[in-house]
Amino acid sequence: MSNLPILIIVIPLCAAFVISIVDLTRVKKFSPCLSLASISISLGLIGCLGPRIFAGEQISYALGGWQIPLGITLLVDGLSYFFSLIATLLMILSIIFSINKEGMHHFFLLLLYVGMIGVIYTRDLFNMYVFYEILAISSYILVVSGTRGSLKASLKYLFLGSIASASFLLGIGILYGQTGTLNLDLIAFRIPEILQDNPLTIGLVASLFLFAFGIKCGAFPLHTWVPDAHSLAPTAVSVLLSGVVLKIGIYVLIRVFWTFPYLGIEKIIMWLGIFSLMFGALMALAQDDIKRLLAYSSISQIGCILIGIGIGSESGLKGSLFHILNHAVMKGCLFFCAGLIIFSTQKRKISELKGFGKHNPLLSFLFILAALSIIGIPPFNGFVSKWIICQGAVESGNIFPGIMIILASIIAVAYYGRIIQLFLSPGEPFQESPDIGYLQYIAPCVLSISCVLLGIFPFLGINLVEHAVKMFY
Amino acid sequence: MAINISIIIFLIGLYGLVFKKNLIKKVMGLSILNSGIVLFFVSIGYKKDATAPIMQEGITKVADPLPQALMLTTIVIGICVTAFALSLIVKIYERYKTLNVQQLIKEEDE
Amino acid sequence: MDETNIVKTVTRKIFPVLVLFGFYLVSYGHLSPGGGFQGGVVLGSALILLCLSQGIAETEKRFRYPTLNMIKSTGALIFLGIGFLGIVLGLNFLTDFLPTGEIGSIPSAGSILLLNLAIGMKVGTGTFLIIHTLMKFIPGDKNGNQY
């Protein structure tokens, strides 16, 4: 029972390689069931860990029996548990949504999951780099789809992601040269003395990490891969990219910058957040393609999350983490609905979607629900997390980010409102569309019900977040 | 000294990745970037008058084996990324008949 | 690819020596420079050499794609299986459960030898499959010659 952290990572990995063998035999059609089964087992194991984490325990696991400082350790504490829960839930919904795809697609989805959970649980910097590369390479491969332009989008993502990984590795190298160890806890222990001897080296490492994870999480000047990759990928992959992969970059930022604190880096993160917020909102106003609009909206929300982290107070971090959960749920629902809309009408442009409400009322209802939450209207969950971030901003004496968030929400009313208005107005009927199976509706329905639940009973989410934030304050 | 050379190789690779217009040259820049990082790490583990880190009798001063082990993994990852980038380039050439970045961007705007 | 007879014959004769060298590197990984990845790349290079000199069609008749794919995935599963054996025996994942023998002989250093063999299997077939996939899909002219 104490082997749980590693089993959560290894069981999907085994299932992935079994799928790659099964794909060559005659029982090909069982691959999706196998991947669903393995992620369900992981979800069950995470559920088993739950009570122990909520009781305040931190579960540490040494791989191979080698203890610190020789070995690699995994640590499951409040923050890791929170992120792994989001990753697993979105992953299950994505696999259910893409149950008809071929075996190798599921192979790469499982590798993506292994990479995500590996980055979240590990305590060793180089192990984090290796798992991040598994995550990144699987996502480069998954972005390639049948859509026109997806090859170029994947190549652009590949080049930018490789520059980011190389900077991360360079930072790890400099840090290892200075401290002589790769374990995050030991580095946090040795940093204060090095900070006195040569602060410039630590400043260089901090800027390399910020550059690397700015690219990975889609902050303003380093966001250029996000619109292409998120809009041209297959739908389930867009959900995972927007909902989890961007957030893993933020997770590493939180881990690295809270384990070794630097003065002044929080201001830079906050300003990056403010620029991403306004840039994403303004660019989304000008978009006609529905998935590209959702991708720019992702950049805007990542800006909101970065503001919350950059504020530095407890409310700011709490609001950010809750917004990470909310954005995963809301943006996941929006992308699933957008994918089904594109599948059933074969049209990607918003201007051609007039009157869709009459064509498929359920889908429009789910889309409108999620769009209202992401704008930040009161009974839904987006409002709660943005409110907590603004409250944190005001508490720490800096009112400008709060005003920016409210301004960006007003701009969001404009670009989501246009879609809602086009759905609800009468238009010419669409041609006969392919039938959407019941299985495809499960994912957006579950996510929009969670939007409403988390909005009406926010303590469900805040409870999870409290345990995550407890270890920092 | 080796650390300085590795930073120069890293910057040459970065220049190739960012400023060259042909896709294959960009991938070559990526490969040079990876080599620069490998050299950087290995030269961090350098100790004067030390031998290879293999355990035999009578050897006391060995170079640091940890960066060398890490770099094996890094080289593997570099191979995978380069292989995938090249296969994407093969498909892009088949589709668009050009490898020039400017022309590929112009295609997108149409 | 139309290579001369000298190239074709010499590469056919060198191929087993390369494979032997690859296995040597893999199995002496814990005693001298080498190991799973390095030996695996040499094994892969042996197959690639065959592929470059004889042409992809000939090589594919002898080293078939489904078989190599199966070997590749089996290598990964053996690695994970050895890790699981650690859990089954009550220790942590990937613990050394074989005894460490004397320094300098092959069966020493615990389970590293088995892990190296599994990695060598996977990396060798993996690198060859990358080149095989790239070579198969490069468009050629009507006679089947590749550019």
UniProtKB/TrEMBL annotation, chain B:
Pfam families: Oxidored_q2 (PF00420). The keyword Transmembrane applies. One of its GO terms (cellular component) is membrane. Keywords: Membrane, Transmembrane, Transmembrane helix. InterPro entries: CPA3_antiporter_subunitC (IPR050601), NUOK/Mnh_C1-like (IPR039428). The keyword Ubl conjugation does not apply. PANTHER family: ANTIPORTER SUBUNIT MNHC2-RELATED, MULTISUBUNIT SODIUM_HYDROGEN ANTIPORTER, MNHC SUBUNIT. This is Cation:proton antiporter. It comes from Candidatus Desantisbacteria bacterium CG_4_10_14_0_8_um_filter_39_17. The lineage of its organism: Bacteria, Candidatus Desantisiibacteriota.
Automatic annotation (TrEMBL), chain C:
Residues 6-127 form the Na+/H+ antiporter MnhB subunit-related protein domain. It holds the Pfam family MnhB. Keywords: Cell membrane, Membrane, Transmembrane, Transmembrane helix. It is a multi-pass membrane protein. The keyword Transmembrane applies. The chain crosses the membrane at residues 14-31, 37-56, 76-94, 106-131. Its main location: membrane. It is found in: Cell membrane. The keyword Membrane applies. One of its GO terms (cellular component) is plasma membrane. InterPro entries: CPA3_antiporter_subunitB (IPR050622), MnhB (IPR007182). Belongs to the CPA3 antiporters (TC 2.A.63) subunit B family. This is Cation:proton antiporter. It comes from Candidatus Desantisbacteria bacterium CG_4_10_14_0_8_um_filter_39_17.
